[in-house]
Amino acid sequence: MSVGTLKNILAGIAFVLIQVLLFQHLSIFGATPDLLLIYLLWLALKYDRLHLVLIAAGLGLFQDALYDLWGLHMFSKTLLCFLIYRLISGYSEARLLLWQVFLSIIGAALIHNLIFLGLSSFIDAYTAAFNPIIFSLLGSLYTAVAGTILFVFKGR
Questions:
Q1: CA–CA dist 33, 26 (Å, integer)
Q2: How many domains does the chain have?
Q3: Angle 102-104-109 (CA atoms, 0-180°, nearest 5)?
Q4: Following DSSP, what letter does each residue of 53-66 receive, concatenated?
Q5: Is this model's pTM higher than 0.90 or not?
Q6: Domain of residue 36, residue span
Q7: Which of 2, 87, 116, 126 has the smallest count of CB within 10 Å of its CB?
Q8: Comparing 33 with 90, which gets the higher pLDDT?
Q9: pLDDT tens, residue by residue, 22-76
Q10: Closest C-alpha to 64, from 102, 126, 20, 111
Q11: Distances (CA, A) of 75 to 2, 57, 63
């Protein structure tokens, strides 16, 4: 494992911790942004598919451990990274506009949330006080807005 990969994994752990410690308290109608998803989309520009899927699985498992949802985040993030890798990696050479970044993130977040909802419906992870429409639509919108803001502040 290279030093750059280790730094990216540690940054991913930091994103998960920031999400758990800070952004869980900044919910809008129960929806929170998924910072790890934004980070994984950014890593798709840097790594090949195998490395990205392995990093997504490890960081997703860490996120599952903190939320006590063993396997849901890991499977949904791994499957999402596998499915949309070719689309996202094609953006590595292009300079994207804000609306393109927003649409890419909201599309990926919708796919991720639908995978997550499908998995959670099989195991009844969210049985009480959970609205799937708010989770999928508002959570995706919140993630896309947060990702676009991070894109603006990070720059190229």
A1: 9
A2: 1
A3: 95
A4: HHHHHHHHHHHHHH
A5: no
A6: 3-154
A7: 2
A8: 33
A9: 988 888 887 889 999 999 999 998 899 999 999 999 999 999 999 888 788 999 9
A10: 20
A11: 25, 7, 11
